[in-house]
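Two quick folds needed for the group meeting slides. Do the first one here.
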Amino acid sequence: MKKLICLVALLLTAQAFGETVETYAEPTGFAVYYIQDEAECSESGGIWDSEVCLVQDENKLTLTKSEGTDSKVTKVNISTWGGNAHSCDFTSTNVYNVGTALKVVEPVEIYEFGSQEHKLGLCEVTLTKTETGYSVDNNGNCNYFCGMRAWLYIENATKK
């Protein structure tokens, strides 16, 4: 039993050391946070202005890569902001290399307005390498992961 526990611990440790994480970000503007005092606002990285705390929001893209010669992306996390502080949160391990881009695919339920029925579809997110980072776009079926005024789109996220 002790050997099994040691083997599992060794495997988990090896897996943790076998990955790297890259973070990319794109500033989106300031959002109002309902923090009540200037000190707490400052601690949160905000700017105190006329009794409200303004905090710089940013769209984020996080890529988890396996270490080794191929350094393959194994997990993608995208967090974006839209109007009225609505957001998108998307995480997937279904990552594929398509030419020079990465394609990330997740099954979703899509509502068809004409038939007023739900059907199964695919959210396809494309990550395209830019000169300074990545851009993110999707096939239009990814609203499942977003609030009403948000979308999975990043014009140019640069490495942090």
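Then this one, please, same format:
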Amino acid sequence: MLNQRKLPQRDKDRALEDVLQEFGRCLQPNGPYGGFDECCLREESFRRLVLWAKEVGVFYQDLIPDRNGGREHDVTHDCLTKTWLKFTKPSSAGFTVDFDDEYPYIINALPQQYFARLLLHNEIFGDNISFVGVSGPEYKPRIITRQLDASGEPTNHNDILTLMTLLGFDRLNLDKPVGYLNSMAFMSGNVAVFDPHGANVIKTSDDLLIVIDCIPVILNNESIEYLKLFI
């Protein structure tokens, strides 16, 4: 049964701010693991993530998700804490957004980019996603995070537009979606939010709109000026 096995205790979760700093040091040339060739950045990032997780006691060799999720995560429901454990796909850190000839497009994220994305998500949407650890096998690690359980119905574009406008964002009328088919995109200052759509923004029975899984990114000056063309 789902909760007859031992799941990671919630009081051992780490704040994403702390993870960004602690694991970030592991990627520095003067950090605990030394330098590495930039051409091996992806492989080395995951290798060092496993090493660091073992050192701080959050590597769970045999922990696997209970059910398949979407493109980025598989999941386990922890009914004792009323939270979801979200596992990235093996050897993956979800997605982020990059710019090719100025136009935004989805790419595979590095662990540090994934942590930064989730932290930004918390800040924008008032969420409390936390870092749980890393699960094995070592050669195909998954990053585990925890998110509060929320139940509701899928939203529509009008609901999402209302929410993002209240949060101070302008809609980006892009030529094609960045992320899920028919997803939307928004911008406020140097922050853009990509991929909100009906399945990852839900409406509760109290008409509260909750964002589950979007892709927020910090923009550089060039990207800001380009995206302003779509407002």
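Slide caption for protein two: The first strand starts at residue 59 and ends at 60.
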